[in-house]
Amino acid sequence: MRIDSQESVAKFMGETIKLESTPQTMEDIYSATMERDPSAVMSLYFDESGGIQTKTYDEVKNAVFMTASKLSHLLSGCAPRTVVGLKLKNSHRWPVFFWAILMTGHIPLLIDARLPKENTNNLLKQSGAVALICNDEEEFIVPKHRINEVYNVETDYSFNPDWADNVIFCSSGTTGDAKMMIFSGRNLVAQITASLSIPERTVDLMYPSPIRNLAMLPFHHIFGFVAVFLWFTYYGKTLVYPSSLATSDILYACQKGKCTHIFSVPLFWDGVAQTVSRTVANLKPSKSDLVSKMIAYNTHKISKREAGLAASGIARKKFQKKVLGKYVRYCISGGGFLSPKTQSLINGLGYNLYNGFGMTEIGVASVDQSPRVETRLKGSIGKTFRGIEYKIDCKPGETQGELMVKSPIIHEEEIIGGVRRKTPLEDGFFRTGDIAAKDKNGNFYLKGRIKDTIILSNGENVFPDEIEYYFKDVPNLRNAVCLGAKAKGDDEEKITLVCEVENSIDEAGLQRLYDDIKAINDTLASEKKVQRILIDRRPLPMSSSMKVKRFQVKKAIEEGSGDFIGQDEENGKKTVSFEGYDPAEVEATLKRVIKVFSKTLLLPEFKIEPDAIWNSDLGGDSMSYIEMCQNLDKEFKVTIPESLYGILGTANDFTKEILDLKAEEAAAKKGKSKN
User: Fold this and answer.
1) 18-192 domain in CATH 3.40.50.12780?
2) In 3D, which of 592, 608, 609 has the Cα closest to residue 662?
3) CA separation (Å) from 263 to 295, 349, 497?
């Protein structure tokens, strides 16, 4: 069993500091990567029969030189420092072609292997690319070189490397102006040296002993490129390539490849959590109880004595063998909102899942590295890595605002609509477009994207990611996205939940889905209630980072697309029953409640209807809501439970709750008098 102390980890990573004394180029990164341990296994992959194949760092180094020699012949007519597209899915060949392009003096433009021809051509055109390395059959606007074509080139290998020093990442490449981020060797050296802060907080993320990281995240994406490819090959670790992104192949790669690290996006972790939940639900009661106790014990909700057998490593490893394998030591979720339920379940299985933050413009900037599961379950993105500074741009008196980043890892230049320019910064800070908050311990938390935030008529901000979380486990719901949209006839945006459902669902199943969503919706605070439920007849459009393209769905709704069916939630209104109470008492209580509403909102009483909702109908906000609840407590000498704050939204709601509290109080007094 491996034991790595903080001291040994720090010593292992200490060699990285040498990079800062070099010219800090891509060539420097390559040389350090290939020289650390030439005999170590860099790539582990599977043949057609599922057998394990490997390539050492020395073998990859030789393959890079040979491939660069052949590429230099194919690209001989292209000027140095021009752009060459790299459009390949993850495989042991991807690093070879990436480094070979740079070695020939050309700048790699990293493109999603699944990107359609039209989008690919748009990226090639706007970047000024002169060639494309791919496996596609179709032709593009620049010369295309398929892998086999490169391999078949004859050369005497008298090639002299002429290194380029930039890498280009890009947006999805829609037919409009694409955005491309140009990183220099200096930026990516800074991204590597940022890891030097890791030993201060954990010995699990990077250490001298063998590490096998699942190469599932696409390398054209910044998360996959930095957190999997760049970091772990630089430190001489092994990348395990699944045969495909099919669930069975990913699980096979994790287990057969003995993966110790798995990094992915929330959608993947949600899928694992849902699969586990369904599996546990189908177990015999005794086994289901064992797993439930194991999850509770591993998240520190029950003691070792209460957990019994479930607290043993044997029980944990036995169950893990059926999920991601028993070797997994460190997991990261990045690229979006990670639901607390998923976070709790994955950690409960004994897989330490942490939340991180990065974006194409700035690379990977932070990850929670707390050894305490209680801290991880709070959903923080942690503290910044070495050489990175965060600050929150917020209004006076507010605790959250736009997250800004300052660091040499930020891309130096960008191309927008074919025009190249310096990256716009404000006193060295880059605006991320993410809303964040910071706690007293210096940990940061993401709330959502500014462009995705739904602003209600009363000025309240609603974060769609959080609302989506509440509906993730609805039966027959394959995927869902929340957004603010104006359908035809709407004066204001409505909080809209767009659902992708199972293909086999019938009308009865669809109605049950509506009912399940409405039942959950009734438990949410007024400002979080979904106002419209739509079923999309097609699969929801996904980006290369496995996130739903909200802007595309919103545009389709607002243009009146016929692909949606659904119904409004009547602005969240529901009937309140006063059955069993004296009508006169109800009326008297309601009048007093309306008076408190009127006083708090500075509205005349006649404008406050009994079923008018505090925020959407009456213009109240969260601060005045709390004040109103406290005023009602004083007026009626009751204590409205804080668990109902936000859920009670109308004068009728509060009247019913106050009558219930009074009735409970009277019953308790009556019980005491009898005793």
Assistant:
1) yes
2) 592
3) 21, 16, 28
